[in-house]
Design brief:
Shape: elongated
Number of strands: 6
Strand order of the largest sheet: 3-4-5-6
Structural class: alpha+beta
Helix content: 25-40%
Largest sheet: 4 strands, antiparallel
């Protein structure tokens, strides 16, 4: 067979298979594209957090919020405080007590926290104290808290069931050159289940202008 004849046969073969090869190539490109799209549009969504906090209510003038993750005890106490603050004349002793209770409940109801960065009680502090307090809690009380962004945490964690007020007394509290009126409270914490967390708490709340702040807090061993 001559070389010319062989070349003609090759050309015919190429023409014969050209269209099927193009179709096959296009099918491969489409399949790869679909797989990439599936990864970014569907698999990526599966990796998004499924547990998150959203605000249910807020007392904007004071910076206090109620979140969907908060416990029933916290929610009940929050609305008790809101009622106090909505009154024509605010009872600052009652305000101080409810704020102290919210602080303790929020800090020690750890099973509602998404991760160790979700520190309770921060919004009841002076602005310049918040970061230091948060870092301290993250490195101590919340140090071993597992992440629950995807709702898969199995870790057993405390939830405050009840607070018992053991004592309260008026105190003078000094911040820099400012002398403030405060109240020192002593509480006993009852948990849904005793997991060995702090049970006895001393806390001081002070009135500064029209707002109350938590300025001292410490577990007490008995």
């Amino acid at each position: 067979m001559s070389k010319k004849k062989k070349d003609e046969i090759k050309i015919k073969m190429l023409k014969k298979y050209k269209i099927p090869l193009i179709i096959l190539f296009l099918l491969i490109v489409i399949c790869v594209s679909l797989l990439i799209a599936k990864h970014y549009l569907f698999d990526k969504d599966r990796n998004k957090p499924t547990v998150y906090s959203s605000i249910l209510d807020s007392m904007e003038s004071y910076g206090y919020t109620l979140d969907n993750q908060d416990s029933k005890l916290f929610k009940d106490t929050y609305y008790e405080l809101k009622k106090i603050l909505d009154a024509d004349e605010i009872d600052y002793d009652a305000y101080s007590q409810k704020l102290s209770e919210l602080f303790i409940i929020d800090l020690y109801t750890i099973d509602t926290k998404i991760n160790r960065f979700d520190v309770g009680g921060v919004e009841y502090l002076y602005e310049n104290e918040k970061e230091m307090f948060k870092n301290k809690v993250m490195d101590t009380l919340y140090e071993s808290l597992e992440d629950n962004s995807y709702g898969t945490r199995k870790q057993e964690l405390p939830s405050v069931k009840k607070l018992i007020l053991e004592d309260s007394k008026k105190v003078d509290y000094k911040i820099d050159d400012k002398k403030l009126n405060g109240i020192k409270y002593t509480y006993t914490i009852e948990y849904e289940k005793d997991l060995g967390y702090d049970k006895n708490i001393e806390i001081i709340a002070v009135k500064d202008s029209e707002k109350v702040f938590i300025v001292e807090f410490a577990p007490v061993k008995k």
